[in-house]
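Q: Hi! First time doing this. I have a protein sequence and I read that you can turn it into a structure. Is that right? Here it is:
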Amino acid sequence: MLNKGNGRRFHRVDMPIRYFITPSSPIRDREIYATGANYFPESTLKLIETKKNLILIAIEKTQTSDPLLKTIFIEMIEGVEFFGNCLKDISNGKSPKSDLTYWVQLKERQTGFKQAAPLEATSPKTFSYIKMIEQKYLTYLEYMIESIANSTPSHFFIRERLPTGFKIDELLLTFENPKLQKIPLIQALLHFTTFMETYLSVYQRINDDNYLKQFPKEWPFKDSNVSAGGVAVFMSKGFKLYTKVDAFLYFEAENKLLSFDGTIVGFRTVQEYQERIAINFEFPNGHDQSFLQQEIQKHEVEECMDIEL
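A: Yes, that's right. Below is the predicted 3D structure, encoded as structure tokens:
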């Protein structure tokens, strides 16, 4: 339920919609354009901590086979955390490029995970796994550096949507096989990859928030709680209570884009490390509100027909 405001006056239903939600005003006095959304809500920070602890536990179990592995994994963790710190800065409107030392350190990370080099001769399979991880890390790092280098206080540069379909993503399905649960090295690689993915997903959200607004057909199609007076959605980013937001809903069948001025009236962490965000529409356009009400009624009719069948 929405916490307060006009949302209570309208019938509410659960239905899938395409939506795009962003703060109405970006961060002020910034070095680099930032939307103002919180890309590191408490749920994401807890997920990062949990994944890191799992890596460290698995690493300790690998020491009996190869002491070098701990050195390699520590370097990898530091590289990903450095990437994460850059994300925190740019999400707060601070540009790494404004600090020359910081900027040089960031670009030096493009050399990859150097400690892994000896494994090419002694453990070629493990080396190949780490190179797969490195490929995805360096690809995202390259995109982030390019964005930082070309962004301004009024514009965050995006070349395109971030690439997908890396070899390591396919390998993860193999690593998740229950038969491999007792192999410490495999588990360390699995936990590190999911740890890295948490940070990469944050960057993907920043990237998409600065790119997808003009492509509503690519917006997420997810279950939401909707009424003509507001909407509640699940997201992996946060907003301060009473933040003013722009809420866009897209209905592909009619090629109809609705735009609402909204206010965050509810925000709480739910299962699976996500945030449930409730939004009231403020003084909505009558035509858009009527169209939304019709879509809600249409959805209810379709659900009734499915039940009867």
